[in-house]
Known about the structure:
Elements: H1 2-7, H2 19-31, H3 49-62, H4 68-76, H5 84-98, E1 102-106, E2 121-125, H6 127-142, E3 163-170, H7 181-188, E4 202-208, E5 212-219, H8 232-249, E6 254-260, E7 264-267, H9 269-273, H10 284-296, E8 302-309, E9 315-317, E10 323-325, H11 332-347, E11 350-356, H12 361-374, E12 378-380, H13 386-395, E13 400-402
Parallel strand pairs: 5-6, 5-8, 8-11, 11-12
Antiparallel strand pairs: 1-2, 3-4, 4-13, 6-7, 9-10
Helix pairs in contact: 2-3, 2-6, 3-5, 6-8, 8-13, 10-11
Organism: Deinococcus puniceus
Domain VWFA: 211-394
Protein name: VWFA domain-containing protein
Amino acid sequence: MARLTRYSKFEGELDQLDSSELMQMIQEALLGQGMNDPYDPDPNTRPSMDDLFDAILEALAERNMIPEDLLMEAMQSEDVRETKLGEQIQTLMDRLQQDGFIRKEFDDEDGQGGQGQSGESKFQLTDKSIDFLGYKSLRDLMGGLGRSSAGAHDTREYASGVEMTGELKSYEFGDTLNLDTTATLGNVMGKGVENLQESDLVIRQAEYNSSAATIVLLDCSHSMILYGEDRFTPAKQVALALAHLIRTQYPGDTVKFVLFHDSAEEVTVSKLAQAQIGPYHTNTAGGLRLAQQLLKRENKDMKQIVMITDGKPSALTLPDGRIYKNAYGLDPYVLGATLREVANCRRSGIQVNTFMLARDPDLVGFVRRVSEMTRGKAYFTTPQNIGQYVLMDFVTNKTKLVN
């Protein structure tokens, strides 16, 4: 591998690695769930500087980038942090902070911060880091699939168009009158403008580029990290890639993020990157309800929900605020409330596209019903290829041809 060959230059000088290259090496650790207990997840868990040290050490070891003399010294030491290798990793961590990729924070009783010990210090990803991870995820997922023009989404509405296709056609009743003056005058030059007829009219076809408001509804219930498979990290990578895609290629669009578990809450893209698995159940109805509230504030041609999940609805927020839960099967009470929210989406013109990371027969039936009700799409996929499904569904919604 060319990149590994290049890294051989850093033998004994690992502290000179570029920060962006280092971020690329540890991106999965930064987004992943390795810093949480899968059997007792804590959604408020925040990674420490020790976690960052371990992630860098593991990345270097996996790529065979640690010089043999430093490796031998570290293996013989009781604390790798006290070795030359540990010093160089600390230098890399300092550079990540200096270059604006992480922000170091300290936990103490008064909340005012302090020097503390390494194990007591936490870190936050900065906006620069989030943008980098979004770009990297997008590049990895899209590869050579190319770029899409800004604002190119399917829409049921027609307009006079903002981009001409260059194709001409004779006017027919019902067409938008994008009149091509030159061609039309050419048809009447011989007989006079006063004798103009409908059949003489020539229009130039156009494309209508709609703007869209998207809510990414992301399941962070317990099942997303159970059964020996981390489904949450790939889902977060897709969400960050979609945010970067919309910001850079669809400037007229908006995207917001909602996490749902026992309940549901909106999170910013910066908080999303370090979000952890939440409480155990799946309150799909609560997620859909919050997504609708957020979309009502958007003045866009299209409003859509991209729901990424792996489980059946198993929780519901009652009118008094209590959470009703049933983890076994599709509880009729929970299912009924969930489908009512789906029906509300349809009445509001909101399309729900569901990306399902499981294939339970009852779950398949539920997802298909949701898709039919909102004229959305259902994709049954895996953590390995969900990115291609989500992003290609988004960018291949081509503009409508307006006659």
